[in-house]
Amino acid sequence: MNIRILYFAALREALGCGEESLTLPAGVGSVGALREHLAARGEPWQRLANMKNLRAAVNQTMATPETAVAEGDEIAFFPPVTGG
Amino acid sequence: MSMFSVSVQEADFDLGAEVAALTGADRSCGAVASFVGVVRDRNDGSHVAGMTLEHYPGMTEKALADIVEQARGRWPLIGARVIHRVGPLHPGDNIVLVAVSTAHRGEAFAACEFIMDYLKTHAPFWKREDTPEGGRWVDARESDDSAMARWGDGENSPME
Fold this sequence. Notes:
The complex is a heterodimer of chains A (84) and B (160). Chain A is an alpha+beta fold and 84 residues long. Chain A is built from three helices and five strands; from the N terminus they run E-H-E-H-H-E-E-E. Chain B is of the alpha+beta class and 160 residues long. A four-stranded mixed β-sheet of chain B has the order 1-6-8-2, sandwiched between helices. Chain B has a four-stranded antiparallel β-sheet with strand order 7-5-9-10, with no helix packed on it. In chain B, strands 3-4 form a two-stranded antiparallel ribbon. The mean pLDDT of chain B is 93. At the A-B interface, helix 1, helix 2, strand 3 and strand 4 of A face strand 5, helix 2, helix 3 and strand 9 of B.
């Protein structure tokens, strides 16, 4: 399963990555599982596991750890928003 | 032209022109409430020389349109205009405009505040301030979450 992942703001800077395309192994089928999969890469990705209040979106809609991830999805991880 | 629109842009906006567009288009309008957010020159004890607004292109517009739709589900709005600026901004610059038009003032005040409270917690914008100590990402405030929570529903989708 191929997906696109975006990172924003302080998280993007900490990871040194704003965007990547990834082929997921079988069994990584939710936002929560994807988070664990990415964190297992070690530093600096480990901080995805430690980060409090991490937010995620799937196809530009706010998501929860249970939200399913499917072929072609655009997943985004980011800190709490601070606009306005 | 639809009386409901959202924009994400680098350019400044003209409050008077936006309000005139809302009131001029529908004579049943009896009230317009507007809010303008402005860049401050200080935050959390530091001088702020400027800031950069980052956003998530695509999702931002979608989130703002969804917030306006939620407001329309709660109050009989005649029109609404939301403009959020992105890119480099300086103290005194406008950041955000929310303007709503209704028949009477009660729903105009309420809907304007509702849209701002939801925008603060649901629209994917992030502020990075330039201070004498260097650049720093602004932390989300708990008071924004509690301001949003008083409207009842609307989870903030934390990952924890």
